[in-house]
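Researcher: Last one for today. Full complex below.
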Amino acid sequence: MTAIRIANLNYTYGPKTALKDVSFEVAAGTFCALLGPNGAGKSTLFNLLTRLFSAPAGQIEIAGHDLKRTPRRALAQLGIVFQQSTLDLDLTVRQNLSYFAALHGLSGKTREVRIAGVLDKLNIADRAHEKARTLNGGHRRRTEIARALLHNPAVLLLDEPTVGLDAAARAAITDHVHGLAEDGTCVLWATHLADEVWPDDRLIILDHAQVIADGLAKDISADQPLQSAFLSLTRPRE
Amino acid sequence: MSGYLTALIAIVTREALRFVHQRERFIAALVRPLIWLLVFAAGFRAALGLSIIPPYQTYITYETYIVPGLCGMVMLFNGMQSSLSLIYDREMGSMKLLLTSPLPRWWLLTCKLLGATAISILQVYAFLAIAAAFGIVMPAFGYVAVLPALIVAGLMLGSLGLVLSSFIKQLENFAGVMNFVIFPMFFLSSALYPLWKMAESSELLYDICALNPFTHAVELIRFALYLEFNGPALMWTVLATVVFMTGALWGYSPENTGIRRKG
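Model: Here's the assembly. Have a good evening.
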């Protein structure tokens, strides 16, 4: 089943082209890495996928729902982890999750059960009553991933989720999210770090507003390290 | 419980928690009008002679006259404060969380507006209580009758905050709001002096004051405090709310956010 379908997406900021004829599909249960240098168009693509922006041309479908025609159904199927932390630092982990659950219409016992479930899943149950401000970077990210999973989304979008984390926390989160894809969630993971991509991952490379490679990471990298393949594929910015 | 109601409760609770966490904001919200009431009004009492104008039946002290205007001031500053919070939320990223919720954007913004209005009203009642403690009292039922007027005025000033937040790109630009929105709105209104006084000085300024929606919000509050209904003031305030809210919905629509953010 196709979880994300993007067709002929174009977007410009005035005279500057941010995305040019971007098309791809990602199936359920896939870990898809969206790799691109800074300024390639990854964040614009995320803003369009999350309907923070709306593209005048092109089509986006999330779990079969057209984002333009049925935005509420499409957004209900999306779990999002933004690059910048969006936790309310003055609230506890549980309060942050509870607030988000309410924004998705979850209340009462369902909300409590879901919160307990994601806290367990991300191994942060013991932090539930701590204020987000007191958490380290790794635990804040875990909290945000837990929050993004509260409403059982079909698609999980993560925009450079390991920025600012140490090597251990980065590896732990990368491993964990790969596990989520194995459980059936479609994961779109935007990054500019090639070492977060595993050989069997689906890989889309975005550069200068266009998709320049799409396939399995091991096929794209061929017989060289992915980092080298990435650097040779992407053109230096002017 | 409907998803709409669940989100409303969550957003209003979060606004309230944020307000509780910012004690300085509450104190500032009270100190500001109290300085006007207890210091400014004391100094101007002799300088400004007031004739009997509706809704007043007798001569009143200047302190009594400016209480409704200061209620409006509390709401005006609170509306701008919530606007500032929204811009901060957008810069910090937490606004994204709200805007990517599957609920309609108009409802999410309405929830924000209702939260800000509820906090405004609490502050106004706290101010009225302190004013009463200093002997500036209104008719007893006026404190109840003013509630609907406060709701309408709070919604108008909150929606003004929303529309401003949708157009102000950066937190640093907010200082301009003080100079170009708060001060003109407050001084070009009937908050501190009746409009006939302004007409004596300048017909043009009188016309501007008469068009200022803040004037009508203040008059709505003033009349309600004295158990009288001011239809034109209600109409103007509601009209301004509709215009500001329409502007805010336009400004926060996905079709417009991207273009302005980087364009």
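The mean pLDDT of chain B is 86. Residues 3-252 of chain B form one domain.
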